[in-house]
């Protein structure tokens, strides 16, 4: 019997996001969901896409973003949608745009200025207000968000260079409870950043405690990602253990020459800990990092590029060495003249990046900074770079594995039910791409060049990207952390089981 659908994607090669081998087939969509997959040549549809020669995959999930403001301010989300991303997770590294129940202090405290240096966007008094704004003026992509510990510290503490008092912890707990009730997926911490460095392990545990009944997730930019990474892992695991919650190690890296090679040991320790508690991790596919400009980071970096500067915007995109010679001053003086500012640091070793990316449980997250004038190319290139450079060209893992790391694995780890996989009944978040052509084109010299090889992108059954341009549609939803029976802790992905037996 002939069936009629809203949309038929014909003749594609389906990579379904579970890690399973590709197969040929047609994908039928009705409304916001996939209705059938298979040989559907006898069926008809209101709209058809010929996907011959293309991969049909679940839309990519960017598990680590700082898109809190871009979702509202530039809802077409071109840097993300142009890469095939259909869902973003915001509020990372301890920095969230909400809540801000008091007027934000100006100038905006680094690293909160990564989201908005003007302070105007720190206007959502509660987390519920922020999520309501996202619901009322949706973006092109789906979004979920953490509440950030550093944001909460900035609200309640007059002096950030000490641990929070019992009363301050209690106020932060109230805001965490409010955020979790509103639909936050958990709490993020950024213990490496000056405003959170003085927080003790105990403070973090107590601030996170109200998320426990909500099965919240603790995502952490760890206290140290250099020589003391092992100690940071211990602290991270201790927090997860004390609360019995899932822990996500953000942008796992080994920064600074003294730490290079340590990923052999860190991945062994992480795999081993996964047997005892729920641990996840993500990574971006570059040997350079990017955050606010600090002298400490610049001193340990092989090369430093300025991504923005409030006081000296003319130096955006310039090498710090050039700035020093032009100003005829020391690194310390140049940094002081540029601050507040952002920078790219070349501090990682390719072997560590490749090893971490290849680790089965590693998810892909861009960590892109959408408001930098001269951003790290990860903002525009992360997903095509993993598919093109790391999977196809370097053969680090199969295309099916690469897609799994940015779709099915991520949806299972974060708790996005009926997303991240292509099967009947799942939401129609779908990305079409050319496996032979796909590649990142953003570079440190030209950081906003769009990737090549992405075809159509659908979010909740609606086309958001066609013919190299956004369609203007904004079908994105606010996503919450849910657990389907299949995604309950312990009944996780194949890769997790493999790690456990190998441990
Ligand atoms: Zn971070
Ligand atoms: Cu980050």
Strand content: 15-25%
CATH fold type of the domain at 4-58 and 424-470: Urease, subunit C, domain 1
Radius of gyration: 22 Å
- Named at the architecture level, the CATH assignment of the domain at 4-58 and 424-470 is Roll
As residue ranges, the low-confidence spans are 486-503
Q: What would you call the structural class? A: alpha/beta
Main pleated sheet:
9 strands, mixed
Task: Count all strands and give the number.
Answer: 21
- The CATH homologous superfamily of the domain at 4-58 and 424-470: Urease, subunit C, domain 1
The gross shape turns out to be globular
Number of helices: 17
Distance between the termini: 51 Å
Ligands present: zinc ion, copper (II) ion
Describe this structure in words.
This protein is of the alpha/beta class and 503 residues long. Among the domains are: 4-58 and 424-470, Urease, subunit C, domain 1; 288-344, Dna Ligase, domain 1. The protein has helices spanning 70-73, 78-81, 127-136, 149-156, 166-182, 194-197, 201-208, 229-243, 263-273, 295-299, 320-327, 331-338, 350-358, 378-393, 399-405, 408-414, 494-502, and strands spanning 4-14, 23-30, 33-38, 44-50, 55-58, 60-62, 85-90, 142-145, 147-148, 186-190, 217-221, 246-249, 279-283, 288-292, 304-309, 341-346, 362-364, 430-433, 454-459, 462-466, 469-470. Strands 1, 2, 3, 4, 5, 18, 19, 20 and 21 form a nine-stranded mixed sheet that branches. It has a six-stranded parallel sheet with strand order 9-10-11-12-13-17, sandwiched between helices. Strands 6-7-8 form a three-stranded parallel sheet, with no helix packed on it. Helix 4 packs across helix 5, helix 7 (201-208) runs parallel beside helix 8 (229-243) and helix 8 runs parallel beside helix 9 (263-273). The radius of gyration is 22 Å and the shape is globular. Mean pLDDT is 95; it is low at 486-503. Zinc ion binds at residues 93, 190, 221, 250-251.
């Amino acid at each position: 019997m002939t069936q009629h659908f809203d949309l038929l994607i014909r003749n594609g090669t389906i990579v379904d996001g579970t890690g399973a081998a590709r197969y040929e087939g047609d994908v039928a969509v009705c409304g916001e969901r996939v209705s059938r997959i298979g040989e559907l040549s006898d069926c008809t549809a209101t709209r058809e896409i010929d996907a011959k020669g293309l991969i049909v995959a679940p839309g990519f999930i960017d598990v680590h973003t700082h898109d809190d403001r871009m979702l509202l301010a530039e809802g077409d989300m071109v840097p993300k949608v142009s890469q095939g991303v259909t869902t973003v997770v915001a509020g990372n590294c301890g920095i969230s745009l909400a809540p801000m129940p008091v007027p934000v202090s100006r100038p905006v405290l680094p690293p909160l200025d990564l989201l908005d240096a003007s302070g105007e966007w720190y206007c959502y008094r509660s987390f519920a207000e922020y999520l309501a704004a996202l619901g009322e003026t949706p973006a092109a992509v789906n979004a979920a968000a953490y509440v950030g510990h550093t944001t909460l510290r900035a609200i309640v503490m007059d002096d950030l260079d000490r641990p929070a008092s019992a009363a301050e912890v209690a106020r932060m707990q109230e805001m965490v409870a409010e955020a979790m009730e509103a639909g936050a997926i958990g709490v993020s911490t950024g213990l490496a950043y000056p405003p959170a460095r003085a927080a003790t392990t105990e403070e973090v545990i107590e601030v996170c405690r109200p998320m426990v009944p909500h099965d919240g997730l603790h995502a952490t930019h760890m206290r140290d990602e250099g020589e003391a990474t092992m100690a940071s892992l211990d602290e991270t695991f201790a927090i997860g253990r004390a609360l019995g919650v899932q822990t996500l190690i953000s942008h796992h890296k080994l920064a600074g020459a003294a730490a290079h090679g340590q990923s052999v040991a860190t991945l062994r320790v992480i795999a081993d800990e996964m047997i005892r508690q729920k641990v996840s991790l993500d990574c971006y596919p570059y040997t350079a990092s990017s955050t606010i400009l600090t002298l400490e980071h610049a001193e340990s970096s092989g090369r430093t590029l300025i991504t923005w500067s409030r006081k000296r915007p003319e130096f955006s995109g310039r090498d710090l060495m050039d700035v020093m010679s032009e100003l005829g001053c020391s690194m310390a003086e140049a940094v002081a003249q540029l601050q507040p500012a952002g920078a790219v640091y070349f501090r990682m070793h390719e072997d560590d990046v490749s090893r971490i990316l290849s680790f089965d449980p590693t998810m892909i997250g861009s960590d892109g900074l959408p408001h930098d004038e001269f951003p790290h190319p990860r903002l525009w290139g992360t997903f095509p770079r993993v598919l093109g450079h790391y999977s196809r060209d370097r053969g680090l893992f199969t295309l099916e594995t690469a897609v799994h790391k940015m779709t099915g694995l991520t949806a299972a780890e974060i708790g996005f039910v009926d997303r991240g996989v292509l099967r009947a009944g799942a939401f129609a978040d779908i990305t079409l791409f050319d496996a032979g052509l796909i590649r990142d084109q953003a570079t440190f010299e030209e950081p906003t060049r769009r990737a090549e090889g992405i075809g159509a992108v659908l979010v909740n059954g609606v086309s958001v990207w066609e013919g190299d341009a956004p369609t203007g549609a904004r079908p994105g939803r606010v996503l919450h952390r849910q657990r389907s029976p299949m995604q309950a802790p312990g009944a996780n992905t194949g890769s997790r089981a493999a790690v456990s037996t190998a441990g």
